[in-house]
Amino acid sequence: MTSPRAQLHPGPPVDGTPRGSRGAVLVLPGGGYVMRAPHEAGDVAAFLGAHGVRSAWLDYPVAPARYPAALHEVLLAVADLRAGRRGGAPVDGPVAVLGFSAGGHLAGTAATATHEERAGAAALAGLDPSEVRRPDAAVLCYPVVSLVRHPHVGSRTHLLGHEDDGPARALSVEERVDAATPPTFLWHTADDEAVPVEHALLATAALRRHRVPVELHVYPSGPHGLGLADGLPAGAWTAALLPWLAAQGIGPA
Q1: Torsion over CA of 3, 6, 7 and 10, rounded to 10 degrees?
Q2: Number of H-type helices and E-type strands within the chain
Q3: CATH of region 7-248, choose from 3.30.930.10, 3.40.50.1820, 3.10.20.310, 3.50.50.60
Q4: Quick check: pTM over 0.90?
Q5: What is each CA distance from 199 to 16, 101, 222, in whole angstroms?
Q6: H or E segment to which residue 100 belongs
Q7: 176: nearest Cα among 107, 85, 109, 88
Q8: Which of 196, 169, 178, 228 has its CA nearest to residue 41?
Q9: Which of 20, 61, 86, 207 has the CB geometry, 3.0–4.6 Å to 214, for a possible disulfide?
């Protein structure tokens, strides 16, 4: 097998779980596809571990890398977590992706990955295509969703390298949702000026159209890039997330 290029960082050991932890969460920090925000990576994995949730975070490719490099690496990381490659035991249970901002877009495209995208990732790593599947659940935190409606221009340009509407529409999560998209949890703030709340609303509407289970939380205020949002009203998202993950089969056994 050819080694994937992106580094996968295991999260800290889970706390308070004498019988172990089911499933895992792959954390994808934001950064406009040009960098990866540290507070949306290790801090989030530490929070999950402290609440009995196994996790890892991924240094996925950013500019000058273009689509589909980052998506392929996420799909391979999910496959490797399931199989116990790159350290750690195989995951017993579902694997979720959890992404912030542009990382939320990446999580959304992984959750809606096409047959061609999955096959491309498998070929990159020399895996049987059946090993590379969509994640079992998705968590989208103030996500970039659409690349054509209220677009975050930086994310679009760094991901694609051009302004063509055709490829941008094909990579807009709301256009990719289908009935096989996994259950999804979203949160946003209503006054986010960098990535408008309409992104989360577009995703929610698309998920509802296809009868995909969805949970959406919109908090009145808070700037973009809050991460865990400790001490802020929007920080309530973490308390809402844990029972949702448990309902998906992820968390303390």
Answers
A1: -100
A2: 9, 9
A3: 3.40.50.1820
A4: yes
A5: 36, 10, 16
A6: strand 95-100
A7: 109
A8: 228
A9: 207
